[in-house]
Amino acid sequence: MVKYEVSETSPGSVVARLEGDLVLGDAGEVRACLNPLAESFSDLTVDLGGLHRIDSTGIGVLVMARSIADANGHRMRAINVVGAVREVLLLVKLLTVFGGDAGPSAAV
Length: 108
What we know:
Elements lengths: L1 E9 L2 E10 L1 H17 L2 E12 L1 H16 L3 E5 L3 H9 L17
Parallel strand pairs: 2-3, 3-4
Antiparallel strand pairs: 1-2
Helix pairs in contact: 1-2
């Protein structure tokens, strides 16, 4: 199960904090949250520090949000990419898609 919390940090900027497991059964809800944010806000930060697991569907949700942000001239980055989530993104060579090296509070 994945939970998320969204907070606007300044005009045009928003942070989405994810907790739990971003996997097949829960990815649709997160997609429905992130895609409109990526389209509407010029700066979307996704905090992955609370995620324990991510599968290919969850990765797809993040990639789609990034694609939407890019298509609208916006920025989407991930922070706090650690543990198993970091390992998976490294394995599939997508860690750099979100901006570079990832560690606690580092932009990904």
